[in-house]
Amino acid sequence: MAELSVFASRVRDFSKIQPEFRELRRILLSMGGEETAPPLAHDPMVNFLIDAGIVFSGPVLYKPGRSGHPVANLARAWKQRSHGIAAIGVGYALERSGLWREHTFGILREGVLETDSKKQKYFGLMLIGEAADGFASGALDGKDALTPVHRRM
After folding, report:
1. Backbone angles phi, psi at 129, to 5 degrees
2. What is the three-class DSSP state of 50?
3. Residue closest to 113 by CA, chosen among 82, 138, 135
4. By the 8 A CB rule, do 149 and 71 touch?
5. CA separation for the pair 55, 38 (Å, rounded)
6. DSSP E strand boundaries for 30-98
7. Taking the model in full, what pTM does it have?
């Protein structure tokens, strides 16, 4: 797929800036998919994902909310504790195209809360308590709107 070959080139370039990303890519691709979209800048989470990242599985509850604002939708779900959300997941999700992309998602007692488009697999870290509260507050400004916490390539 032509789109994925562009990401292979970006991975090579990004790995010069943050070599450990190659290991995270290896881990992700061992679970499926064809390529990984690298972060836009040096990502301090990469080593945490390598050391402690896990697959989140189970049924996916799809609640897209406001169009074009999946991170704000997730933050609102956390603040309101809606849909049975128990934690926030930060990491990567596997898209139907075969691309692993940075992603945030809700973690339910049994499954995943998806506020963006449907994904095939989820890998990341779990934020609870103050960490999840901080993430949600950072994703919402005083007007309950999206701030640039999460950008897609």
Report:
1. 55, -130
2. helix
3. 82
4. yes
5. 19
6. 35-36, 54-56, 60-62, 85-94
7. 0.88
